[in-house]
């Protein structure tokens, strides 16, 4: 972070990354069952407390360093980069997270490192999750964010969605947009 954040902020970041990892583990199982050779992983995130004696003076979130080109496949509103093959997998993963969570969550803001021309391993970091279970995370746009995902980023299902038998949801524009 460019400026210091409190402990709660770091904990919610790590929790969000662990939630996204849970969804992606289930997504990877479905890919494997369909003999699709791509796998997606989230870089493990950890919180380090800065101590002075027994007093917490601050904290930082850390991840392992990944060598290679960092790519941003999508953001948490309307932007999606279709020039990367990995984006198809990422959008199918977002769609899967929505279906797997019983239409409560969609994982967005896909960014990280891609191997094998986007058909190999995809290492992601710093996910955002739009959830109908609103919380006070400013990047959770709730129903509006889910609407953005299905009506601006993932407008139609792709080959991966079809192979995983994902069904196209009808997501209506929320009243407060």
How would you describe the overall organization of this protein?
By secondary structure, the chain is of the alpha+beta class. It has helices at residues 7-33, 86-100, 142-153, 159-163; strands at 39-42, 46-52, 55-62, 70-72, 105-108, 111-114, 121-124, 128-131. The strands form three sheets. It has a four-stranded mixed beta sheet with strand order 1-7-6-4. Strands 2-3 form a two-stranded antiparallel ribbon. Strands 5-8 form a two-stranded antiparallel ribbon. Helix 1 (7-33) packs across helix 2 (86-100).
In a nutshell, what does this entry contain?
This protein has 177 residues and is of the alpha+beta class.
List the helices and strands and how they pair.
Elements: H1 7-33, E1 39-42, E2 46-52, E3 55-62, E4 70-72, H2 86-100, E5 105-108, E6 111-114, E7 121-124, E8 128-131, H3 142-153, H4 159-163
Parallel strand pairs: 1-7
Antiparallel strand pairs: 2-3, 4-6, 5-8, 6-7
Helix pairs in contact: 1-2
GO molecular function, one term: monosaccharide binding
Domain Alpha-type protein kinase: 1-169
Keywords: Kinase, Serine/threonine-protein kinase, Transferase
Q: So, CATH architecture?
A: Alpha-Beta Barrel
What is the average of the pLDDT values?
88
Fourth-tier CATH superfamily name: MHCK/EF2 kinase
> Spans with pLDDT under 50 lasting ≥5 residues?
none
Q: Using only CA atoms, what is the Rg?
A: 17 Å
Can you give the helix content as a percent range? 25-40%
- End-to-end distance: 29 Å
Organism: Mustela putorius furo
Pfam family, one: Alpha_kinase
Keywords: Kinase, Serine/threonine-protein kinase, Transferase
Protein name: Alpha-kinase 1
């Amino acid at each position: 972070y460019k400026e210091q954040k409190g402990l709660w902020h770091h904990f919610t970041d790590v929790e969000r990354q662990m939630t996204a990892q849970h969804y992606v583990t289930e997504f990877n199982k479905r890919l494997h069952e369909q003999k699709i050779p791509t796998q997606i992983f989230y870089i493990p995130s950890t919180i380090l407390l800065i101590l002075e004696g027994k007093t917490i003076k601050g904290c930082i979130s850390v991840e392992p360093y990944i060598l290679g080109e960092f790519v941003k496949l999508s953001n948490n509103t309307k932007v999606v980069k279709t020039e990367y093959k990995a984006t198809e997998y990422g959008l199918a993963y977002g769609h899967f997270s929505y279906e797997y969570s019983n239409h409560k969550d969609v994982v967005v803001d896909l960014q990280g490192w891609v191997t094998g021309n986007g058909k190999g391993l995809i290492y992601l970091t710093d996910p955002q999750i739009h959830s109908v279970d609103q919380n006070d995370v400013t990047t959770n746009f709730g129903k509006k964010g889910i609407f953005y995902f299905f009506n601006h980023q993932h407008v139609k299902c792709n080959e991966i969605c079809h192979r995983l038998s994902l069904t196209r949801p009808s997501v209506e524009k929320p009243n407060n947009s």
